[in-house]
Design a protein that fits this description.
The chain has 330 residues and is α/β, with parallel strands linked by helices. Helices cover 41% and strands 16% of the residues. A six-stranded parallel β-sheet has the order 2-1-3-4-5-11, with helices on both faces. Strands 7-6-8-9-10-12 form a six-stranded mixed β-sheet, sandwiched between helices. α1 crosses α2, α4 crosses α11 and α9 crosses α10. The longest helix has 16 residues. The chain is elongated, with a radius of gyration of 25 Å.
């Protein structure tokens, strides 16, 4: 059976030229296109997706690994990825790892076996071989590892968290509780460090009773609030995502703690519902759409063997709404 090399030899061109003539004919002159087509006919070569192999396999497909497909935070990131992918004739497949390294590894195997071209991972729950440096096209977005040897697109979680606590301190709060996400997660470590540093700068000693953890779900925010309410007298609460903040707001309502009169609450992400809660949620806005677009653009650079930025940090913004208010002792 004839292959790309046979066509290239007969046409007197490189295999790269044959590939361009098949996949991007607009980038090849008409004369060259006809020359390649003639050689293909003479060889009896019939191109198909699985046969488009040059320096890499081109399935024109990328896989996006998510830790939890039900988490609304990832929707706009995936949309951003799809916008850039479509412009470049790539298909996007979503892989829900359900927080399982084994499942993430199954998606990685699709790239190893040339059934997909590359991966954008929105989770740091990946096999050790990825953390140590794996020879496949991969870009990390949102979550990341320290000193990770592949391109990363993210925000500065430490500074974003610190800015939120600085704001609460500026409006008079000193007893600021915190609901973290899973503390084996790099972004949660960075956010907790920002929280801690802001308090330290204000000469406020960190009280471990002021900290509880959740798993980024509504229910975990609800449950963590009830635990905090029993053990710590808080006037403000910082949650590591909007969904936990909404769960906490519901729990505060149930115990008769009015927001923001008796308790100020800040979330993180600025999901669409944040501006429709009562009261509207003060939160840190992440540029989800831009994260997705930048991650896909970065992966394209990797796939084309072009130089890609190793660590792209996108800006965040603290959006002050009505779930926070100044505190003064009366």
């Amino acid at each position: 059976m004839a292959n790309v090399k046979d066509v290239a030899k007969l046409a007197g061109v490189s295999t790269a030229t044959v590939s361009r003539a098949m996949t991007h004919p607009e980038k090849v002159s008409e004369k060259m296109r006809k020359k390649v087509q003639s050689a293909m006919l003479e060889c009896g070569f019939s191109p198909n997706v699985s046969a488009r192999n040059l320096r890499r396999c081109e399935s024109k497909t990328v896989i996006v690994i998510l830790p939890d497909i039900a988490n609304q935070f990832f929707a706009d990131i995936v949309r951003g990825i799809q916008i850039i992918a479509k412009k470049n004739d790539y298909k996007v497949l979503l892989g829900d790892s359900v927080h399982a390294v084994e499942q993430a590894n199954a998606y990685i195997d699709l790239v190893k076996t040339k059934q997909a071209d590359g991966i954008i991972s929105l989770t740091s729950e990946l096999p050790e071989e990825v953390k140590e440096g794996i020879n496949i096209p991969i870009v990390m977005a949102c979550e990341y590892f320290e000193n990770f040897p592949v391109p990363t697109v993210r925000i500065d979680n430490y500074t974003a968290s610190k800015n939120a606590i600085d704001y609460l301190l500026d409006i008079g709060h000193k007893h600021i509780a915190c609901i973290t996400g899973p503390m084996d997660n790099p972004i949660c470590i960075a956010r907790k460090n920002g929280y801690r540093q802001s308090l330290e700068n204000a000469a406020i000693e960190l009280d471990e009773l002021a900290i509880d953890s959740g798993d980024f779900s509504f229910h975990s925010g609800y449950s963590a609030f009830h635990r905090l309410y029993k053990q710590y007298k808080m006037t403000a609460l910082f949650c590591f995502n909007d969904m936990m903040a909404l769960g906490a707001m519901r729990a505060a309502f149930e115990v008769g703690l009015n927001v923001p009169e008796k308790l100020s609450i800040i979330g993180f992400d600025d999901l669409p519902f944040a501006q429709y809660t009562t009261p509207q949620l003060t939160t840190i806005q992440q540029p989800q759409l831009q994260i997705g677009k930048t991650a896909m653009q970065t992966l394209l650079h990797v796939l084309l063997d072009e130089k890609a930025a190793q660590d792209t940090i996108l800006p965040t913004q603290l959006l002050v709404r009505s779930s926070t208010a100044s505190y003064s002792e009366k």
